[in-house]
Fold this sequence. Notes:
InterPro entries: NAD(P)-bd_dom_sf (IPR036291), Prochl_reduct (IPR005979), SDR_fam (IPR002347). This protein is an alpha/beta fold.
Amino acid sequence: NHGTVLITGTSSGVGLYSVKALVSKGWHVVSASRDIEKTKLAMDALQINSDQVTHVQIDLGDLESVKACAREVQSLTSSLDALVCNAAVYLPRLKDPIISPQGYEISMATNHLGHFLLIQLLLSKIKDSTHHSRRVIILGTVTANSKELGGKIPIPAPADLGDLSGFEAGFQFPVTMANGKKFKPGKAYKDSKLCNMITVRELHRRLHQSSNIIFSSLYPGCVADTPLFRNTPKAFQAIFPWFQKSITGGYVSQELAGERVADVVMSPTFAQSGVHWSWGNRQRKDGKQFIQELSNQASDEVTAKKVWDLSMNLVNI
Ligand code: NDP
């Protein structure tokens, strides 16, 4: 049952703990991170067996770096049996947008477009794998799903791609939002995660039958103490984990989030394509997984086709 999985964003948080879980279950991990030295130190601190990890460099916000990374992975002798798109930036306090080398707003560029391109470039290698259960997984989130309470919070606005006129216009600065409207950094993150969940559905529709690859997304719970929240106000960082532990009950440790990702990568229980996984009783190790319904926009086939086609244009393939 062992295989090789590529995970992006492995220097901290969910990605790092996913490596820990998968290595301990005998998998080989191709760790794709911005800063390999930082990542190695983080892995050593968790005593992750370095013999089971191959490091490759990637900056998901730069499509040229994504292409270079994909070339390096293609040339690795081992097969690639699974891919976990985990890296993300969350920059809710930006006054002005940060723009990627290709001219795109950085949260959408990193979280969605970088991963979208990586998947396109690695699909052939995953198709070539003879592993009995090949999988492509993207981390989604509750705040980008209006079917859940967390997705209804209007701070600064719920995820909404609108008519995708920002993508259609080429998404070049000064256009910074998928819907072509005013820049809202917190919403840019949610929109990018909505694109992640839409991508999984569209991959399933287009490729599952012909390739037998399993495509799924997941929300492991609120991992409130990862560095993802490093750009939120200090008071928020102090209160948020307590709030999620004591009030909402949504808090999940990094260790448990990593275990959940590992299960979605390798367990027969998660061998279902085109679905979004979530867990009830989020804080408990025996909390049961279930298939979470997604918002109308995330499930809409016309929107998904448009996101796919426009993303193909934006990553230039
Ligand atoms: P972290 O900030 O701990 O991890 C994010 C990782 O992404 C880091 O390794 C970071 O590396 C990497 N990264 C950021 N930008 C880039 C880039 N341009 N190129 C390559 N790598 C990059 O956050 P989490 O572990 O919390 O988040 C992981 C995933 O889980 C995200 O997709 C997030 O949306 C999702 N998620 C998290 C939840 C939570 O409550 N924490 C809840 C739901 C979903 P670096 O060290 O270089 O910055």
